[in-house]
User: Which sequence fits this backbone?
């Protein structure tokens, strides 16, 4: 066991299994195979389509190192920027980053489960999460929510180790990784509130709060956050204003979106729950009943809080602050649920149970990988227009047009966000993103630099709002051009789409 308290107070069966060897032998191979399945599925199903615009936006920010960005804290952009400093800018490479992020997340869950469960129990915890969209399909979109699934389990693991041992190393790690979570998204305050409640409910709370541990955790966390706080103050609090704007939707819109997101996130646990029921067989109902009863046992209140706190506090944010809860908010919310279920139910995780779960995970993912070419073809043929815009193709053609017109590399791109950020990723010139409506949000692209180096503005032909806005900004001196391009997949050409380009020339005296 990880502490004397756990040895005295965890359910007897869990106490027995948790005293076994703490080897992580099955973990590396399991994660490697899972990442391979994820990356293969994502790469094949993306076909000739572009990356989601959340991902290309993360690159557009990340290629320009800042201590903060207009909408979100900087960690996601930093990770993407560092990744593509050494990796090629391709779809498969981005999906590999997504897969590795999931692997780090599951390793964190494994370490958290190691405080309570033996190897089989830990394996059951991560196998369960492999069957949830949050740790698979949804996580393949590496946006600002994705790093939360990896930072939350590790923050929790180090925090609980600090709470139980009061050791300096665990306390410092909890603060550092917690700061990383907050630098990913301010929504991590929900995790911090959950962990505070866990500490208050924990039987070792008196020894914890009278030790240096919590103050070391908070001190190193504040120190790690200081540069971003300094940036936020000097920039006029743009990220804070953006976070507050998430609470300013009409009540009806916030209610509809939040209910759909919460119900969708809970419902997405259905496959994992079904596999658990299949694997445990006849004892499933008894395990569920024991888990529910134990959840209301004061002795295990801190574990119940750990499992359900993020969901409950997220719902509270909607109820009390009218926060519009998007589906991505709940991406990391259930990371502790499988572990806590096994602990509170006193489940006997036998080799037979693990074999059944492994077979289920393998069957599902081998099937998905096998049918991924069919999914790719279906999406190409009848997929949503927004996701299969030929953004990669227009990036190549627009760059070629700029280079042939001016004989100079393309340095700045603006216009429609989806198209402009895609150009920063797919263009061989890797231009910088410029928000002409709010140039202060892209401080690397000053007005002086954009006037000197020129800017390419790009809009879809059907987006009148984009075309009219750019026309008003660039004036009559810009060169207007129209390009028609189409996606291609296994020898077939998609429906051609037309794009309007406005090229503000670079200065000739340069």
Assistant:
């Amino acid at each position: 066991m990880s502490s004397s308290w756990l040895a005295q107070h965890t359910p007897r069966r869990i106490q027995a299994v948790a005293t076994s060897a703490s080897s992580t032998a099955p973990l590396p191979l399991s994660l490697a195979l899972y990442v391979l399945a994820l990356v293969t599925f994502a790469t094949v199903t993306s076909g000739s389509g572009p990356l989601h615009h959340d991902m290309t936006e993360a690159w557009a920010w990340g290629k320009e190192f800042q201590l903060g960005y207009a909408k979100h804290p900087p960690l996601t952009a930093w990770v993407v920027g560092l990744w593509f400093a050494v990796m090629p800018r391709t779809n498969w490479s981005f999906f590999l980053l997504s897969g590795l992020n999931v692997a780090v997340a599951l390793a964190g869950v494994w370490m958290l489960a190691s405080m309570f469960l033996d190897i089989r129990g830990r394996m059951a915890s991560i196998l369960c999460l492999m069957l949830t969209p949050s740790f698979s399909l949804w996580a393949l979109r590496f946006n600002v929510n994705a790093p939360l699934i990896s930072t939350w389990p590790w923050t929790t693991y180090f925090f609980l180790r600090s709470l139980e041992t009061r050791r300096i190393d665990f306390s410092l790690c909890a603060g550092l990784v917690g700061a990383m979570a907050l630098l990913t998204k301010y929504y991590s305050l929900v995790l911090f509130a959950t962990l505070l409640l866990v500490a208050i409910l924990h039987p070792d709370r008196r020894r914890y709060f009278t030790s240096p541990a919590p103050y070391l955790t908070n001190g190193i966390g504040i120190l790690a956050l200081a540069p971003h706080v300094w940036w936020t103050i000097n920039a006029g609090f743009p990220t804070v204003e953006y976070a507050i704007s998430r609470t300013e939707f009409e009540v009806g819109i916030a209610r509809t979106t939040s209910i759909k997101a919460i119900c969708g996130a809970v419902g997405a646990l259905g496959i994992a729950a079904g596999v658990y029921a299949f694997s445990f067989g006849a004892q499933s109902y008894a395990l569920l009943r024991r888990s529910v009863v134990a959840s209301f046992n004061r002795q295990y209140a801190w574990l119940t809080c750990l499992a359900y706190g993020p969901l409950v506090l997220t719902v509270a944010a909607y109820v009390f602050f009218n926060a519009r809860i998007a589906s991505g908010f709940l991406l990391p919310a259930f990371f502790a649920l499988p572990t806590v279920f096994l602990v509170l139910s006193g489940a006997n995780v036998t080799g037979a149970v693990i074999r059944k779960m492994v077979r289920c995970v393998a069957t599902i993912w081998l099937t998905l990988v096998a049918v991924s070419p069919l999914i790719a073809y279906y999406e190409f043929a009848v997929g949503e227009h927004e996701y299969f815009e030929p953004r990669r193709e227009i990036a190549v053609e627009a760059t070629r047009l700029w280079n042939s017109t001016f004989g100079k590399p393309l340095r700045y791109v603006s216009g429609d966000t989806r198209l402009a950020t895609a150009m920063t990723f797919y263009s061989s010139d890797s231009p910088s993103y410029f928000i002409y409506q709010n140039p202060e949000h892209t401080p690397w692209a000053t007005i002086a630099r954009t006037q000197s180096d020129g800017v390419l503005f790009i809009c879809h032909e059907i987006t009148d709002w984009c075309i009219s806005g750019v026309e008003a900004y660039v004036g009559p001196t810009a060169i207007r051009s129209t390009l028609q391009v189409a996606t291609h997949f296994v020898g077939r050409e998609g429906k051609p789409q037309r794009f309007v380009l406005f090229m503000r020339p670079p200065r000739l005296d340069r």
